[in-house]
Amino acid sequence: MKQETKIVTAGRNDKWTKGVVNPSVTRASTVVFNSVDEMNHAVANRFNDTMVYGRRGTTTAFAFSDAMTSLEGGAGCALYPSGTAAITNAILAFVKSGDHILMVDTAYEPTRDYCDKILANMGVTTTYYDPLIGADIESLIQENTRIVFLESPGSITMEVQDVPTISHIAHQHNCIVMLDNTWGAGINFKPFDYGVDISIQAATKYIVGHSDVMLGTATATEKYWPQLRDNSYLMGQCTSPDDLYLALRGIRTLGVRLKQHQENAMKVATWLADRPEVETILHPAFESCPGHEFFKRDFNGSNGLFSFVLNRGDKQTIKPFLDGLSHFKMGYSWGGFESLILGIANVGSLRSATTWQAEHPLIRVHIGLENADDLIEDLEKAFARLNNAVAQ
Ligand SMILES: *Cc1c(COP(=O)(O)O)cnc(C)c1O
């Protein structure tokens, strides 16, 4: 089945749609049974889409899980109330005191904080590695290394990783390969074709796509699915059927949204590349982006999120650049239909295994579904304000 068709049909099993187009919103804590046999049957089939108790998920959760497994691949998908909960619980399901994990230096900041502030206290140590390490990951693997965690492209700085090479080496040492696949969104990167064991998404971003729900997913191969599923259940992870309904609705337009985000972002990035104020474009589809060759080899496309580095300005002078924008709002998120922007003056403070060389601020944009020319006009005025501030 082709991708577009899968996006339309994923999770729409008759069992859950019952004669209409979309699965219903089934709200429940208690699931009731009329006989001992019926109850025993439900318990025996609890891993087979039969409702037992609300925390194990209702039909809305089964439909969404099924849809995500269909998009990402793998054997099953565990659901969490946020992307961060998906990351922390997926890691927690596979480590014990004394273990070691390898974490990419460009991981989402809360992922790093979890390693430093929670795993460290539990006796699980973390070594950060250069996202472009490739086959040299082998030199960092220890006797007790359990997980190699990737995020590609990296948060903020967008380095694309050589996922198959890192996965191959990690597997030779019996490590589990986990990937934060939020940017790939289950569409532009197919994690299980490149050796990933567990693919995690902040569904909050492109899956939901409308900036109104927090949600996380972790999809696993046959080998790791039972342990991931059972641990998530033991940790009490569950999600609201109303949120899942919105996420299911988001999936139906995911393909067309991403295509338009990609087209708009390419137009804006191409315009930015010619601006005298721009040092470099950190967009995976641009040669200037570290790891661009892996993007070309492994990805099916891009989306609306990328960064660029300025060749002038500082923490103070980017204020007028950002403050006067009308289509871009500032926000710590992305993946919705609207444009967002973030100015980061001290990228280096977010890294420990690599050194950030750029002298001037980095700007991260999420290019939304507005007309790209309106966005360019907005940015053009912002550059004029920046130049004015720098000249003073
Ligand atoms: C936003 C984000 C997360 C966390 O998702 P939440 O739903 O906000 O907890 C994780 N990874 C990446 C790459 C993100 O952008």
Automatic annotation (TrEMBL):
One of its GO terms (molecular function) is cysteine-S-conjugate beta-lyase activity. This is Cystathionine beta-lyase. Keywords: Lyase, Pyridoxal phosphate. Its EC number is 4.4.1.8. The keyword Lyase applies. The keyword Lyase applies. Belongs to the trans-sulfuration enzymes family. It is an enzyme of class 4 (lyase). It holds the Pfam family Cys_Met_Meta_PP. NCBIfam families: cysta_beta_ly_B, PRK09028.1. One of its GO terms (biological process) is L-cysteine catabolic process to pyruvate.
